[in-house]
Amino acid sequence: MMSMLKKIAVTAVIAAVANLSGLAPAYAQIRVEVSGVGSNQIPIAIAGFTDEALTPQQVTSIIKDDLTRSGYFKIIDSNVVLNENAVVNFGDWKSKGADALVVGSVQSLADGRFDVRYKLLDTVKSSTLSGFSVTAPPANVRLTAHRIADDIYEKLTGVRGIFSTRIAYVTKAGSEYRLEVADADGEGTKIALRSSEPIISPAWSPDGTKVAYVSFEKRKPVILVQNLITGERTEIANFKGNNSAPAWSPDGSKLAVALSRDGQTQIFTVNANGGNLQKLTSSSAIDTEPQFSADGKSIYFLSDRGGNPQIYRMSAGGGEATRVTFGGTYNITPRISPDGKTLAYISRRDGKFQLYVLDLASGQELRLSDTTKDESPSFSPNGRYIMYATESGRRGSLAVVSIDGKVKQKLTVQAGDIREPTWGPFMK
């Protein structure tokens, strides 16, 4: 595992981003294994959509997989096909243990697209909770199914679903490094960048159209921003020494970065086009891994100014820093939740690098992982899950855990290491 100190040393429309025109497809898909369930699972039946065999992917299968993977739903076997206009006997479904029922249909249109219709029914109240129709080209059928699963998740839990969001990560196979982008379930993988040199610290822009990262293509760490739709790359920081740890401001106008251009690594901000560089810290310590708070008013960062690596917070314009983490003597890689209430980080205790979260209001700390070589946490945009990198069988793999630690997912590829995950934002 590459340690943090080693790293120091060395909206477009949904369809456009889903297709990521210009990115090459990848052939190695991620395999997902799920363990654990939420404290209160919602029993739901998903009937087969009429004529869904016409589509390249089965819509109901994707919906079931999404809801199962979340850990918050219990899928009730239906073994029937029902469209959105079917007459439903709510009592029958309630007797089967289903509190909710999903029905729908697929129609093939003359222009090659599909009209996908869906309805969510409440079997307890014998009422309709939600429903909509989407006209989608064949390439976007999977995205449409994810959007239906998102709607179901939100209507039944009160929290926005994240199944139609995307993730980015770095894989290493042989001597090749690849920056890859995929659906949140690991499907639809596309390659944004291939390189014979390392790629680290990818970070999604708030509008989901770009990724900032550190590339070693010039035999030194350089920060770039890549447009995922056009493929255009912009050099943001290529100063003397190390250029590392890019993190976007919530409005996407600038990035916080760690630079050693003046000697010791310190925190700076720079506009998203590479201009207006401003220095925020001037300590005698190593300050790195900056992260903007959810409201953009503060920056969390890693520093060894107290003798050991700990996480601090300062104003987004610089100034006095306040220590945030006190549990343990080695806490790195701060990540703040979308609501600004929870801090995730990696803590080394008893020789293990593990994922922790800290409730910033109460100061209560919780260990979320049971693995021992964790790094690079990233919150889902709804704040309910954290993706992080770890090791499995001496190879890098990804894992996802719910913020209460009860639901766990393991994501692996057949060949090569997979690391440095970043979870993309909600799309407008």
From TrEMBL:
Q: Which residues form the signal peptide?
A: 1-28
Q: Where in the cell is it found?
A: Periplasm
Which keywords fit this entry according to its UniProt record?
A: Cell cycle, Cell division, Periplasm, Signal
**Predominant location:** periplasm
**Cited function:** Part of the Tol-Pal system, which plays a role in outer membrane invagination during cell division and is important for maintaining outer membrane integrity.
Q: Which residues form the TolB N-terminal domain?
A: 31-127
Please name the taxonomic classification of the source: Bacteria, Pseudomonadati, Pseudomonadota, Betaproteobacteria, Burkholderiales
Q: Which Pfam families match?
A: PD40, TolB_N
Give the source species. Undibacterium pigrum
Q: Which PANTHER family match?
A: PROTEIN TOLB, PROTEIN TOLB HOMOLOG
Q: Which InterPro entries match?
A: 6-blade_b-propeller_TolB-like, Tol-Pal_TolB, TolB_N, WD40
Q: Provide the protein name.
A: Tol-Pal system protein TolB
Q: Which gene encodes it?
A: tolB
UniProt GO BP:
cell division; protein import
List cellular component terms (GO).
Answer: periplasmic space
Q: Which protein family is named in the record?
A: Belongs to the TolB family.
Q: How does it assemble?
A: The Tol-Pal system is composed of five core proteins: the inner membrane proteins TolA, TolQ and TolR, the periplasmic protein TolB and the outer membrane protein Pal. They form a network linking the inner and outer membranes and the peptidoglycan layer.
